[in-house]
Amino acid sequence: MGYRFRLGIRPKLFMGFSIITAMLVISDALSILEISRIGKQVRRLLSDSYQSVQYCQNMLQAFEGQRYALLENLGADSARRIELRKAFEQASTRFKFNMALAKTNLTHESEDLLIDSIERYHAAYLQQGYMLLERPQPSLQHYLELRRGPSTQLYGAVNRLLAINQEALYKGSTLLEKSPQQAMRPALIVIVVACLFTFMFTHLISHYYVSPIIHITEAIRQHLKFGRYRPPQTNSHDEIQDLREAIDQLVEAHQEERKKR
C-alpha cells in the first residue's frame, strides 16, 4: 500500500478554528488601517481647507482696510493723508502675506489659477490705488472708477477662493461622517468569507466526523440486537478510521467467540 498522509482530528480542528480566527483578526486589522488612512486624509483636508479659509478672510479684511484708506483719503488733510497712505501700505502688506500663504496651501486644482488672478487683480488695484493717493485733490468719481474696475474683480476672486475652501470643509466633514462605513467595507468582505468558511468547516465536520460516528454507533446497535454487523464506511484517515478498525476487530473477535460456543 502507498503512503497516505495522515492528519489527526485535533490538528484539523485546530487548523479550521485558526483560519476562522485569522480571518476575524484580518478584518479588524483592515478596519483599523482603513479608518486610520481615511482619518489622516480627512484631517489633512480639513486642516488645509481651514487654513485657506483663514487666509481668504485675512485677505478680505486687508482689502477692506485698503478701501477704507482710499475712501477716507478723499476728504482728508495732508497730515491725515500721510497716515492713510501708511495704513494702505500696511493693509497691502497683510494682503500679500496671506496671498503668499494661500499659494503654498493649495487644496483644489483650480486654486492655482485663481490665486494667480488674485495676484494680477491686486497688482492692478495697487497701481490705481497709489495713483488715487497721489492725486492732489482726489474725487469721489476717481474712487468709484477704481471700485468698479480692479476692486470688484479682486473682491470677487477672493470670495470665489473662499467659497472653494468652504466647500472643501463641508466635503471633509461629510467624508468624516461616512468614514466608518467606508472603513467597514473590507472588514465586511472578510467577515462574509469567514462565515462561508465556517459553514464549509461545519459541513466538513458533520460529513467526516459526526456522520461516521452515527454510522458506527448504528452498526454496533445492529450487531448487539440482531447479531449482524455491516462495517460502516469512513472517508477520513484519522482517529475515526482507527476507531472503526478497532470496532471491526472487536466485532470479529466477538463473532469468532460465538462460533466456538
UniProtKB/TrEMBL annotation:
Please give the start and end residues of each transmembrane region. 13-35, 187-210
Under the heading InterPro entries, the entry gives: HlyB_4HB_MCP
Q: Which Gene3D superfamilies match?
A: 6.10.340.10
Q: Which residues form the Chemotaxis methyl-accepting receptor HlyB-like 4HB MCP domain?
A: 7-127
Q: Kindly state which keywords UniProt assigns to this record, in alphabetical order.
A: Membrane, Transmembrane, Transmembrane helix
Query: In its keyword annotation, does this UniProt entry include Transmembrane?
Result: yes
Which protein are we looking at? Chemotaxis methyl-accepting receptor HlyB-like 4HB MCP domain-containing protein
The species is Candidatus [Bacteroides] periocalifornicus
